[in-house]
């Protein structure tokens, strides 16, 4: 009995199994069969040779024109064999050294399958020592034995140790003995779509005899990938609904009402809608799991604060987790200021029913920490602000009712679980991100969360003008940029200057050598820039620095000084990337902007133009001749729509990064599904999964689906454990 779980060794032989394991990490028959062809060669429609790129590993079919031997001028005893081949339009050559016998074995006019890395010789693409395999001649294409009788040849992602047809052979060996596997997809679902069952689908995707066969098989197997994932999410959402939580309903005249009354601005319609949704969530005695995504500066914090106050006015506690200490400190300051006497619980001048806000970060002194912890365990502090590191700590809460996670879209399901586990009763959870996530990605990564989106910016928010400054082409523009900084400061405003690296003796030497090797100019270091500017173009201005190697108290002091207007210019690394809010800052100069991700640039520039004055962002780059880099920067400069930028960014990245999966090691469970391109598939799979789980939560009637779900959950769990 050969199943998808059978080990490969006994089926394909020990040597092949070892090779497959080494090259692709395959262990089971299922692993091999999930290595789907990358594409297919249709023998009826030969591939074009006119667009082979040097460096590519290619597999294609071509007809041999002629084969000739030459002796090498440098060493007449050595030979070079040149095979010319054509696809009918383009003729190229393959070169072999010291294989003169090939002249006899490769016949002109024969069809050959070629595989190898494309090289270049005298400006022409060519192959050196490709692997070749003769295809049956025209007449014998009907020969069933050949395997190519089908007319469609699968092409697999191959490596230098395993050629595409070796994979093809291994797959054929496996398919010959495979017993039909259980199907995870409900029969009615696949029949309604005209899809084959799993067994047929696997055969058709690997050994199609027509285009429609692999097409249908691919559709179905792609749906499977989305379906298993969405079944996991559907089950999780169901589990949340079964879990108890403490309801935190509205308290008329309570903290929320009093806070909203004194807000210096009107909440946007979007904010009100989200607050309404959260209020309804919190009224239920099941935990809220909501994702709030919003454009940079859309005002997520005040929404979160209202949610926190709702819990506090019900006698509970809320914690706000920020990704960096700088951001935690800023949240703490701004929340305390905004609450005013509402945050002075038990203190002189505190309002009635007032609470207390406490900051808790990893680098706090022992005494301050002890005080904070005491307030937290006693319930004295209604609101706790801290870094994500707080998760690792054993902080005891009197009554933790809500966890807000700010600016973290990678915050994993398991990390949420870890936090929730600590509370006796599950707290409500609100995750906030300003990195806009395309809908499908949200469905795939946060499929177990309800999603709210804040699209509009508060009224009166100023435009940010973004300009690319290519200093290699226009050195004078940089001088002009520094002049602009002076003008901005002369008008009483403030400026950020952002660098990619800090500099100083212990700066990563490796990165420096790397960039020297790659011929790109070395990125400017913060410490060097500060010195240059202070003694040069920005002489006389009040310059401050902010970077990750500064002690926490110095970081806080720098940030506070900038916020208070005691500094004109803050030269910083990306520690200011998320959430920093200084309304008087109107200009940002980003040095080596080409080194940043697009969404990161969008985040960065979101720090300016937050007050009543328009923002200006200069993207300085010194790359020469890299058109893609310029295109990326131009894209950021051309739009302020974070969602479009995110989509553009994701297109340029690998799927794995989108899913937050690790770069190496584990193979992604998604082979055919692209979270960017296949939004309809994902949405449909989500609907089907919800119905299936509603009817049969334990998946008793679909054991194969149940197994797939458990297997995927297990790998996710394993990856999480490795990460922590
Ligand atoms: P983000 O969503 O990027 O976290 P913030 O919550 O930091 O944005 O809000 C940015 C700024 O906008 C803050 O100074 C905040 O006080 C202000 N703000 C929030 N909501 C409104 C509103 N409805 N009208 C005017 N300003 C607002
Ligand atoms: Mg924010």
From TrEMBL:
Reaction(s) catalysed by this chain's protein: ATP + H2O = ADP + phosphate + H(+); Couples ATP hydrolysis with the unwinding of duplex DNA by translocating in the 3'-5' direction
Domain Helicase C-terminal: 477-656
Pfam families reported in the protein's UniProt record: DEAD, Helicase_C, RecG_dom3_C, RecG_wedge
One example of a Gene Ontology biological process annotation: DNA recombination
PROSITE patterns attached to this UniProt entry: HELICASE_ATP_BIND_1, HELICASE_CTER
Domain of life according to the entry: Bacteria
Domain Helicase ATP-binding residues, every copy: 281-454
NCBIfam families, per database record: PRK10917.2-1 (NF008167), recG (TIGR00643)
The keyword Repressor belongs to this UniProt entry's keyword annotation: no
This protein's UniProt keywords: ATP-binding, DNA damage, DNA recombination, DNA repair, DNA-binding, Helicase, Hydrolase, Isomerase, Nucleotide-binding
Transmembrane segments: none
Protein name: ATP-dependent DNA helicase RecG
EC number: 5.6.2.4
Family designation: Belongs to the helicase family. RecG subfamily.
Gene of this entry: recG
Record GO terms (molecular function): 3'-5' DNA helicase activity; ATP binding; ATP hydrolysis activity; DNA binding
Enzyme class: isomerase
């Amino acid at each position: 009995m050969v199943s998808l779980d059978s080990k490969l060794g006994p089926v394909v032989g020990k040597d092949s199994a070892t090779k497959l394991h080494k090259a692709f990490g395959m262990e089971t028959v299922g692993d091999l069969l999930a290595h789907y062809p990358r594409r297919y060669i249709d023998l009826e429609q030969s591939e074009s040779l006119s667009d082979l790129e040097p460096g590519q590993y290619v597999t294609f079919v071509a007809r041999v024109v002629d084969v000739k031997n030459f002796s090498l001028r440098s060493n007449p005893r050595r030979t070079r064999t040149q095979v010319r081949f054509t696809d009918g339009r383009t003729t190229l050559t393959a070169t072999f050294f010291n294989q003169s016998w090939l002249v006899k074995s490769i016949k002109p006019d024969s069809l050959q399958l070629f595989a190898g890395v494309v090289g270049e010789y005298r400006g022409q693409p060519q192959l050196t020592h490709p692997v070749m395999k003769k295809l049956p001649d025209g007449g014998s294409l009907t020969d069933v034995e050949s395997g190519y009788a089908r007319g469609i040849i699968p092409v697999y992602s191959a490596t230098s140790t395993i050629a595409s047809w070796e994979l093809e052979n291994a797959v054929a060996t496996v398919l010959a003995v495979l017993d039909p596997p259980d199907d995870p997809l409900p029969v009615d679902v696949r029949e309604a779509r005209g899809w084959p069952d799993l067994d047929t689908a696997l055969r058709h995707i690997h050994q199609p005899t027509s285009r429609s066969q692999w097409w249908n098989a691919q559709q179905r197997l792609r749906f499977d990938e989305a379906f298993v994932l969405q079944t996991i999410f559907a089950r999780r959402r169901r589990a949340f609904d079964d879990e108890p939580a403490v309801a935190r309903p509205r308290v008329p005249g309570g903290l929320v009402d009093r806070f909203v009354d004194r807000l210096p601005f009107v909440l946007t319609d979007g904010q009100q809608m989200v607050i309404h949704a959260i209020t309804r969530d919190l009224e239920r005695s099941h935990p809220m799991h909501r994702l709030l995504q919003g454009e940079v500066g859309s005002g997520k914090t005040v929404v979160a604060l209202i949610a926190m106050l709702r819990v506090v006015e019900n006698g509970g506690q809320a914690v706000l987790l920020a990704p960096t200490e700088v951001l935690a400190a800023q949240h703490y300051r701004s929340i305390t200021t905004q609450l005013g006497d509402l945050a002075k619980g038990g203190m002189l001048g505190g309002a009635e029913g007032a609470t207390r806000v406490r900051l808790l970060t990893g680098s706090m002194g022992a005494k301050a920490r002890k005080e904070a912890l005491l307030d937290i365990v006693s319930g004295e502090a209604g609101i706790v602000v801290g870094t994500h590191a707080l998760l690792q700590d054993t902080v005891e809460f009197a009554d933790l009712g809500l966890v807000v996670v700010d600016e973290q879209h990678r915050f994993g399901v398991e990390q949420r679980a870890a936090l929730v586990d600590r509370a006796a009763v599950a707290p409500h959870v609100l995750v906030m991100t300003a990195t806009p996530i395309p809908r499908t990605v949200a469905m795939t990564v946060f499929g177990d969360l309800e999603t709210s989106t804040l699209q509009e910016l508060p009224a009166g928010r100023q435009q940010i003008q973004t300009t690319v400054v290519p200093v290699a082409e226009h050195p004078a523009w940089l001088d002009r940029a520094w002049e602009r900084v002076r003008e901005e400061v002369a008008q009483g405003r403030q400026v950020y200057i952002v660098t990619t690296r800090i500099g100083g003796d212990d700066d990563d030497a490796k990165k420096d050598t790397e960039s020297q090797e790659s011929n790109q100019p070395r990125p400017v270091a913060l410490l060097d820039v500060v010195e240059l500017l202070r003694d040069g173009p920005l002489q006389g201005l009040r310059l401050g620095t902010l970077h990750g190697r500064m002690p926490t108290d110095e970081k806080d002091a720098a940030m506070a000084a900038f916020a208070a207007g005691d500094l004109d210019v803050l030269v910083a690394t990306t520690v200011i990337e998320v959430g920093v809010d200084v309304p008087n800052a109107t200009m940002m100069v980003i040095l080596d902007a080409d080194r940043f991700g697009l969404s990161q640039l969008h985040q960065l520039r979101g720090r300016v133009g937050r007050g009543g004055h328009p923002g200006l962002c200069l993207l300085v780059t010194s790359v020469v001749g890299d058109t893609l880099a310029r295109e990326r920067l131009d894209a950021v400069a051309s739009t302020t729509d974070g969602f479009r930028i995110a989509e553009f960014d994701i297109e340029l990245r690998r799927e794995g990064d989108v899913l937050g999966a690790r770069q190496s090691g584990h193979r992604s469970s998604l082979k055919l599904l692209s979270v960017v391109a296949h939004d309809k598939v994902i949405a449909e799979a989500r609907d089907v999964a919800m119905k299936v789980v509603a009817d049969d939560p334990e998946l008793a009637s679909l054991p194969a689906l149940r197994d797939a779900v458990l297997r995927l959950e297990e790998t996710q769990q394993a990856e999480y454990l490795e990460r922590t």
